[in-house]
From TrEMBL:
Chain ranges passing through the membrane: 7-29, 55-82, 94-113, 133-151, 191-219, 239-257, 289-311, 351-371, 383-403, 409-432, 463-492, 512-533
Main location: membrane
Cited Pfam families: BPD_transp_1
Record-linked PROSITE patterns: ABC_TM1
Designated name of the protein: ABC transporter
Keywords: Cell inner membrane, Cell membrane, Membrane, Transmembrane, Transmembrane helix, Transport
Domain of life: Archaea
């Protein structure tokens, strides 16, 4: 039987995922479930331990609370972006999306500068608001991160609510809350549920924010795994915790993919609601007052941490100065061993570009297979190739240590690039898949009817039309790579320090000004990336 070349190409990304994701995953399973035979002793020890059980319950609880807070903050914004047009809308939407790819250490830094004992908000109100080093800080920081997901997904679907349905309901007497509850809400509910599930998964897998803002008192499973492995050197307990986390994540990811299917079907709606201008008269009404209050809340909790970092980077000894920028490039104030700030920038750019290339090469054949072919077990295949999205960087780092520590690959740049690719490629896959779904099938069929082979029809017809999705996915992969901390921290030699790890080390050395200056450079790169994404106009999640 002759196998088509296009199907052979699919073996390359599958082999990559097997080596750099599933083999490390199996290694973790073996460590946690095998000891002279199959055993549940380590899982049982974790589940019967009061501390670990409390950590698991807190991880789920904080993820639920963070998701609800994110929805509360994001839904009004989604409504405003979907219903109204105003000057600078595209730029504001891009800026509000930037937090999603900010390094978590930068978010922690922003919250320290705002809500710490010497923070700006603390100084304004005259007392400690009690946000830092508490569960409240974790929830707010998670909302900061995931707020863009709700804004983009829900506003995108809200714009596609066919206005004829609402007009028909209004003709039958439905108004206000009744109109929203019985007509609008059911139509946008797939976007709300999908964005909520994705937010929940990210909050469930969160590492740096609970570690830095919550401290060990509010540790999550990720922090518990990291502590067990890197501090206590207890690989059995770390693996058992990782297994519990993976099982829970798989269930959550399955729900997310089901929700994403419903979302994608509704997004095929071609009738767009035309946004109405938000006029000066609207600003002077109750509606304008509500928008103003909402904007103030978003400014304080979403935008001001970014501005606080920028402000801090430009203040030295109470004066405006670029001294912190000079110091990050000075070896005299360098807290890193074996690397300079220039090395960190070069490493971040190198890893980021390599991640882009590998992520696209891995994602493109898989996206094509999911889009073009029907085969038994397609749903399971979709879940399996998306599973890296439900696994954490710490779990991945643990698996790499177990599998590659005796190989020449260990402690090299390649192992970091592989880890970044596994983390970033699901976003490329989703961006490309979304673009392919928007292409009319008759174009591909027309190419085949004119004698083109399947792979040629894809390269000549579908790929150019899906190029926007490839570009967005590539930019997202780059942004995810330069923001990655957990796996890089566990796997990188000192000379492979990245900008994000450097910021973490500046924070550890209590050099907040230098950390802010370096974070501003990262912020500039991320903002530029999302300006391009906004220009291209494709969704990633």
């Amino acid at each position: 039987m002759r196998v088509r070349p296009s199907k052979l190409l699919l073996l390359i990304p599958i082999a990559f995922l097997l080596v750099f994701f599933y083999v490390p995953l199996v290694s973790i399973l073996k460590t946690g479930l095998w000891e002279n035979g199959f055993t549940l002793r380590h899982i049982s020890a974790v589940l019967t331990n009061d501390y670990h059980r409390r950590v698991i319950l807190f991880t789920i609880g904080q993820a639920v609370a963070s998701t609800l807070l994110t929805l509360a903050l994001g839904l009004p914004g989604a409504y405003i972006f979907a219903r109204y047009d105003f000057p600078g809308k595209r730029v504001i939407k891009a800026v509000l999306t930037v937090p999603f790819v900010m390094p978590s250490v930068m978010v922690a830094l922003g919250y320290i500068l705002l809500f710490g004992k010497s923070g700006i908000i603390t100084g304004l109100i005259g007392r400690d608001p009690g946000i830092l080093y508490s569960w409240k800080g974790i929830l707010l920081a998670h909302a900061f991160y995931n707020f863009p997901i709700v804004i983009r997904m829900v506003s995108s679907l809200w714009q596609r609510v066919n206005p004829h349905y609402e007009e028909a309901a209004m003709a039958l007497g439905a108004r206000g809350w009744t109109l929203f509850r019985k007509v609008t809400l059911p139509m946008i509910s797939p976007a709300i549920f999908a964005s909520a599930m994705l937010t929940f998964v990210f909050c469930f897998l969160s590492f740096s924010i609970p570690l830095i803002i919550g401290g060990y008192r509010y540790a999550t499973i990720e922090v518990d795994i990291f502590t067990s492995i890197m501090v206590l050197l207890d690989f059995k307990t770390g693996s058992a915790l990782a297994i519990i986390q993976i099982l829970l994540s798989m269930g959550f990811m399955y729900l997310y993919l089901r929700a994403l299917d419903s979302y994608a079907k509704r997004e095929e709606q071609r009738v767009f609601r035309r946004p109405v201008p938000f006029t000066r008269r609207d600003w002077l009404s109750v509606k304008g007052l509500l928008v103003g209050v909402y904007s103030l809340i978003v400014f304080v909790f979403i935008v001001s941490p970014l501005l606080a970092v920028l402000y801090d980077s430009l203040r030295f000894s109470g004066q405006w100065s670029l001294e912190w920028y000079r110091r990050i490039f000075s070896t005299e104030y360098n807290p890193m061993f074996g690397a300079t700030t220039l090395d960190a920038i070069r490493n971040s750019l190198t890893f980021g570009l390599a991640t882009v290339v590998l992520s696209v090469l891995v994602a493109l054949p898989i996206a094509y297979a999911l889009h073009r072919w029907n085969f038994r077990g397609k749903r399971l295949f979709d879940v399996l190739v998306m599973l890296p999205l439900a696994s954490s960087a710490i779990t991945l780092g643990l698996g790499y240590i177990r599998v590659f520590h005796t190989t020449p690959l260990y402690f090299t740049a390649w192992i970091i690039i592989a880890a970044h690719t596994v983390i970033a490629y699901p976003f490329v896959l989703r961006a490309v898949s979304t673009s392919l779904k928007k292409i009319r099938p008759n174009l591909f069929e027309a190419a085949l009817s004119l004698g083109a082979r399947e792979w040629k029809a894809f390269l000549r017809v579908e790929l150019p039309l899906a190029l926007g999705g490839v570009i967005v996915g590539a930019i997202f992969a780059f942004a995810m790579s330069i923001a990655e901390l957990g796996a890089t921290y566990m796997l990188a030699k000192p000379e492979y320090t990245t900008m994000t790890v450097a910021i973490y080390k500046f924070l550890g050395a209590r050099q907040f000004g230098s950390a802010s200056a370096l974070a501003v450079l990262l912020m500039a790169v991320s903002t530029l990336a999302f300006m391009v994404i906004e220009r291209v106009g494709e969704e990633v999640w």
